[in-house]
């Protein structure tokens, strides 16, 4: 628990004690005035008196402090030769276990005064302690809140969302190209590998299998080799250990070669619904262009930077969170806020937010309004090399040596 909270708690305890002292200080009981018969009296007023007790229904006798300055006619013996008694008035208790006893007004004033003085002293002490606790706690809270920057964190979150959304929009556009390309790719592979017999693969694999046995098992072409896969080929008769892996790898090399050879301008010029779908998907990225792709790359990198910084800056997003955070979390949040400010300033200087928004709009202008691909076909005719290059970049694998497979 923070130190100054203990100080405030101590101040409240001291204040509570002062209230208890005040509440328990002695007070004068309820009394009423009665006549006293003075039986004897000293010069200082100390006297023996008798009085009628209505509660005990008897006449009682006891000591009392009479008023020594009352009129001499009210004093006894020398002034009352018939009875020798004097007269005075006093106060009788009318409540509690002392009911019927005499009570001298002010006899508890000293004790009550001491209690009141103690209560006042405790109140003053409690106020000093409370002021120290509240002031110190406020200063400490202000220090803890010094790194809270809700506006910075909020702006950075919005920027991270914009950048992430742009990266996602671009990823969807790329996925659309690859999805449209897949049936054409498969067609190229089937066509190319269907022309390569199992015997022709012997030269690429250094043998290790009996072609006649494979033909009897239904494996006649490189296409059949890929369809069967290594695990099936290895169990066929006439296939030596390791030959199945070499056969599959050779067929895969042929497939990739067919894709690289076929994925170009000639394919995109075909009159085929599948080509129209591919042109539509490619047109979105072609219109975005290299500048748009650079913007997407910048957004992706920025989102990757903002994510961890926003996580560390989370306590600074709210003053209550900053108060609850420990020292290590606060220091990390302050550092992260500083980095966020720097990034936000750089982004604002470059005008990146507007670029992100515009590129997202361009990516979202998909081919839905032109399912036949007429607009994309016309655009392709004006710049076919860009379409072919983009297709190769996104969908065609880089060649790998057979030894690496």
Which features does this protein show?
alpha+beta; five-stranded antiparallel beta sheet; 14 helices; rod-shaped; single chain; 5 strands; 9% strand; 62% helix; 405 residues
Describe it for me?
By secondary structure, the chain is of the alpha+beta class. Helix content is 62%, strand content 9%. It has helices at 3-23, 109-145, 150-194, 202-205, 211-216, 222-233, 243-262, 265-268, 273-312, 319-324, 327-350, 352-364, 374-382, 384-395; strands spanning 31-41, 46-53, 58-65, 86-93, 102-103. The chain has a five-stranded antiparallel sheet, with no helix packed on it. The longest helix is centred in the middle third of the chain and has 45 residues, at 150-194.
Q: Supply Rg.
A: 52 Å
Q: Largest sheet, described in full? A: 5 strands, antiparallel
Overall pLDDT: 79
Q: Could you give the count of β-strands?
A: 5
Helix and strand succession? HEEEEEHHHHHHHHHHHHH
Q: What percentage of amino acids are in beta strands?
A: 5-15%
Helix content: 55-70%
* 3D shape: rod-shaped
The oligomeric status of these chains comes to single chain
Major sheet: arrangement of strands = 3-2-1-4-5
Secondary structural class: alpha+beta
Number of H/I helices: 14
Poorly predicted regions are 142-146
**Termini separation:** 63 Å
């Amino acid at each position: 628990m923070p130190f100054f909270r203990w100080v405030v708690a101590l101040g409240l305890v001291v204040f509570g004690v002062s209230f208890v002292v005040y509440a328990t200080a002695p007070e004068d009981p309820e009394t009423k005035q009665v006549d006293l018969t003075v039986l004897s009296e000293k010069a200082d007023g100390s006297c023996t008196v008798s009085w009628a007790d209505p509660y005990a229904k008897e006449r009682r006798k006891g000591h009392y402090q009479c008023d020594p300055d009352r009129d001499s006619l009210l004093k006894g013996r020398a002034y009352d030769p018939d009875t020798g008694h004097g007269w005075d008035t006093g106060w009788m208790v009318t409540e509690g276990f002392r009911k019927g006893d005499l009570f001298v007004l002010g006899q508890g004033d000293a004790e009550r005064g001491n209690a009141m003085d103690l209560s006042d002293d405790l109140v003053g002490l409690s106020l000093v302690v409370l002021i120290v606790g509240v002031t110190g706690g406020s200063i400490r809270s202000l220090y803890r809140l010094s790194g809270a920057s809700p506006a910075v964190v909020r702006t950075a979150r919005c920027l991270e969302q914009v950048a992430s959304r742009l990266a996602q929009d671009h990823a969807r556009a790329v996925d659309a190209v690859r999805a449209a390309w897949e049936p054409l790719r498969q067609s190229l592979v089937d066509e190319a590998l269907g022309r390569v017999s199992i015997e022709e693969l012997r030269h690429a694999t250094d043998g290790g299998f009996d072609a006649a046995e494979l033909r009897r098992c239904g494996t006649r072409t490189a296409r059949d080799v890929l369809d069967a896969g290594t695990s099936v080929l290895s169990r066929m008769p006439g296939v030596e250990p390791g030959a199945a892996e070499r056969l599959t790898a050779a067929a895969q090399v042929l497939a990739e070669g067919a894709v690289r050879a076929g994925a170009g301008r000639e394919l995109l010029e075909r009159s085929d619904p599948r080509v129209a779908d591919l042109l539509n998907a490619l047109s979105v990225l072609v219109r975005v262009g290299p500048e748009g792709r650079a913007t997407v790359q910048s957004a992706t990198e920025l989102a990757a930077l903002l994510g961890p910084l926003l996580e560390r800056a989370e306590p600074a997003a709210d003053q209550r969170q900053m108060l609850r955070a420990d020292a290590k979390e606060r220091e990390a949040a302050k550092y992260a806020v500083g980095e966020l400010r720097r990034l936000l300033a750089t982004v604002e200087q470059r005008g990146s937010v507007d670029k992100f928004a515009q590129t997202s709009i361009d990516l979202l202008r998909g081919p839905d309004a032109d399912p036949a691909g007429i607009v994309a076909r016309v655009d392709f005719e004006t710049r076919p090399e860009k379409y072919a290059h983009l297709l190769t970049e996104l969908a065609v694998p880089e060649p790998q040596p057979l030894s690496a497979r």
